[in-house]
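Render this sequence as a predicted structure.
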Amino acid sequence: MTAGRAMVLRRVGGPLVAEARAVPEPGPGELLVEVAACGVCRTDLHILDGEVPARLPVVPGHEAVGRVVALGPGVEPGRNGVPETLAEGARVGIPWLGGACGACRFCRDGRENLCDAPVFTGCHRDGGYATHALADARFVLPLPDGLDDAHAAPLLCAGLIGWRALEAAGDAARLGLYGFGAAAHLVAQVAIWQGREVFAFTRPGDAAGQAFARRLGCSFAGSSDTSPPEPLDAAILFAPAGELVPRALAAVRKGGRVVCGGIHMSDIPTFPYALLWGERELRSVANLTRAHGHAFLAVAARAGLSPHVETLPLAEADTALSRLRAGQVEGALVLRP
């Protein structure tokens, strides 16, 4: 069997360990993907830090792009939830939602993102920080032409969760984005394409991040500890900082909405009821469904979405995660085997 390589998380806190591994064979219902690129996501940091429980050891990474090199027994394109275009050589993305039970009340209601027994890529099963990855054939996303592998990778989580958060924000004409990383820089482009006015809020002192937001077309870019020049219709929080929730509530108009887009957030401090009163809403979004994936990829193509990416070798995964933690990223980081 040909040898592959993977970056493995063996204990909470890391570091990731480079390992040579035999290329796995797909089991029933699975496929094998030769990974060409894998985005580095904030959720990977939460797994590293133990804030999102994971099976250990595990290969992180849930923004993997590559080509199908083998189909496992029973995989029939176009049947049993397997995409019709799936075949050896097809380019696919492996997203965060790697499996769902199909039987719980949420799955039955079309909300597999809330499945009671989900399988998350790079958390419950090995992910894309590797040369090869296995995936449930029903849960991969066929990728359209138009973006190369590295630029397609961030769409699979940053783009998808950003799209879900944007949908949850409703038809807000004035939209605030708190935390201007991988997800926000993609959401900003879609929102501006839709004709919305976007207000970006970064870490205090992040002049480079604010300049980046302005270059993408944001009407305002400033520190997260400042107020917008006018009330917002809605705000999306991508930064995992609970103290931003009261600030965002204070920034939205009566009847406005605050959406928390992260999988983990520090504790939200107490705040006066007056910030919520006036029929303001506070909600979260969790994970994605396959339907969301297909819908967003179609929108990304129509909007001409242009992810800003920097690529690093797979062996530098720890460096990539450290830079993400420190906020030393413009757009998204992507690993290449």
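Summary. The chain has a mean pLDDT of 97. The first strand starts at residue 3 and ends at 9.
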